[in-house]
Amino acid sequence: MTVRLYDTRAQALRDFAPRDPSNVTVYVCGPTVQSGPHIGHVRAAVGFDILRRWLAHRFGRVTFVRNVTDIDDKILANATDAEPWWAVAYRVELEFTRAYTAVGALPPTYEPRATASVPQMIELIETLIERGHAYSAPDGSGDVYFDVRSWPAYGSLTRQSLDAMEAAADADPRGKRDPRDFALWKGAKADEPADAAWSSPWGAGRPGWHIECSAMSRRYLGPEFDIHGGGLDLRFPHHENELAQSTAAGAAFARYWVHNGLVTVGDQKMSKSLGNVLLADEVLAERDPVVVRYALGAAHYRSSLDLSPASFDEAEAALTRIRSFQQRAQRSTDAATDAVAPDAAGADVPAAFAAAMDDDLGVPQALAVLHETVRAGNAAIDAGDGAAAAAAAREVSAMLAVLGLDESKTTGAAGGETAALDALVRTMIDQRADARATKDWATADRIRDAIAAAGIVLEDGPEGTHWSVNRG
User: Fold this and answer.
1) How would residue 347 be classed by pLDDT, with cut points 50, 70 and 90?
2) Contact assessment for residue 296 and residue 278, using Cβ atoms and an 8 Å cutoff
3) What angle do helix axes 414-437 and 441-453 make, rounded to 10 degrees?
4) Any idea what DSSP says for residue 113?
5) CA-to-CA distance for 26 and 56, rounded, in angstroms?
6) What is the DSSP string of 262-299?
7) Could you report the per-residue pLDDT of 269-290, keeping only the tens digit for each?
8) Nearest to 134 by CA among 123, 143, 147, 115
9) Disulfide-capable partner of 36 in 95, 136, 296, 384 (CB 3.0 to 4.6 Å)?
């Protein structure tokens, strides 16, 4: 078994060899909580959740850290007298958590907020100054900058030459030695809230964006960890700057860099100015969250994903085929064959599925194996081969669990609602059966029409009448 991942820094596929095979360590850049999540944020969460699940399948333990940036220029700009900056940050953080939970993303092992690690950031900045890689601005602003020309490896992640880079736009350039120097610490300003500043050796202020992740990853995973992840748009300047300041401070930092592709709508990047931003809350209100997860996770994680209503329709159709097979397999198996249950012990994924996932998370190829297994399972049911149908059902359940599509584990409280609906529908099915037995066709038809109007599909067979929700 060899897992291979595309390392952005190496620009090549590499065999994945964790520092400690008994504990894979992953740090993913989480949201800056100035406004609610769009579907691109959710796509990233799904992609790294699948990565985490597969690493856990292969190695066992995964320590997964995803931060929350809860202090930032945009957060301060969105604050009002009625809602202070910290209240904005907390409200929006909860919106992200709801969206992640809805699509079945596992909660992080640790989810640190930037404001809780300011002492560690100050300590890291002091180390950089001592090593000659950072300096206080001479203009009395209280700003501290990373000196990019002091670190020859700067630009190695994105393979850019320093002189070809754009100036850093994260602070007023008046106190910089070079326009590309970036802020490690931002001195407090008169027009900013007093509670948005912390004491430091350089005066009151707050951390720059990039130093936050360097300090938090070191605090929770140590100076060297396995995987650093994030969206493709974070490679520069954020991840480039993280790599520079962490290694300049003496840390080995991330061994692999993994980046997910972006979401487009109508082949255009989502943009508020274009009015094509798909807000996560709106999409999840209109679509089954499991359908949303399938649509966001079906493409290869590094590819650009162009979303349209057809994307979700196709995902819903695919899930309907899978659900239908699982229901048929459960009905065709007698009580002695409990192994078709979704959480059956000992079930494993097919070798072809594992090979696809080992090859840089080849989810499209893995889904092809899943659907082929569904097809074979349906054929086994049609042929009356209960053992083959049960084996296929076990494999399907195992694959769904790895992909986070196992609805028995992602729908939460919905299980109680399903049981209540099942009781009501079965009562109506029994009433219809009684009416048919007494040849009261008018009553039987009226009950059938009422069930259909509620979006319920009935399937009459030799083993009785079964129902399912019409998801078409």
Assistant:
1) low
2) no
3) 160
4) B
5) 11
6) PEEETTEE--TTTT---BHHHHHHHS-HHHHHHHHHSS
7) 776 667 788 999 999 999 999 9
8) 147
9) 95
Output the CA angle 85-88-89, nearest 5 degrees.
90
Q: Are 380 and 333 in contact (CB under 8 A)?
A: no
Give 72's contacts (C-beta < 8 A, 6+ positions apart): 32, 34, 209
The residues, ordered by sequence, that sit 6+ positions from 319 with a Cβ below 8 Å of its Cβ are: 288, 290, 291, 294, 405, 471
DSSP summary character for residue 424: H
Q: Three-state DSSP class for 258?
A: strand
Please choose, from the candidates 236, 234, 246, the residue with its C-alpha nearest in 3D space to the C-alpha of residue 121.
246
> Could you give the dihedral angle defined by the CA atoms of residues 14, 17, 23 and 27, in that order, rounded to the nearest 10 degrees?
-30
Predicted pLDDT at 462: 53
CA angle 443, 446, 451 (to 5 degrees): 125
268 closest CA partner among 308, 212, 315: 308
Peptide bond before residue 237 is cis, with ω within 30 degrees of 0? yes
Q: What is the mean pLDDT of residues 153-172?
A: 91
Measure Cα distances from 88 to 70, 72, 95, 426, 429 in Å: 9, 11, 11, 47, 50
Token code pair at residue 460 = 């009459």
Q: Count CA within 13 A, CB hemisphere, residue 319.
A: 27
Return d(Cα 220, Cα 424) in angstroms, integer.
Answer: 50
Q: How many CB atoms lie within 10 A of CB 393?
A: 29
Rounded Cα–Cα distance for residues 32 and 89 (Å):
8
Report the pLDDT value the prediction gives residue 272, as an integer from 0 to 100: 64
Q: Length of the chain in residues, anyone?
A: 472
CA dihedral 349, 355, 361, 365 (to 10 degrees): -80
Quick: pLDDT tens for 147-162.
999 999 999 999 999 9
Rounded Cα distance between 472 and 411, Å, is 20
Over residues 56-60, mean pLDDT: 95
> DSSP label at 38?
B
Q: Residue type at 157?
A: L
Q: CB 260: neighbour CB atoms within 10 A?
A: 26
Cβ contacts of 202 within 8 Å, gap of 6 or more: 136, 142, 143, 144, 185, 187
Task: Look at the alpha carbons of 184, 187, 191, 196 in this order and tell me if their dihedral is positive or negative.
Answer: positive
Structure tokens at 252: 């080995």
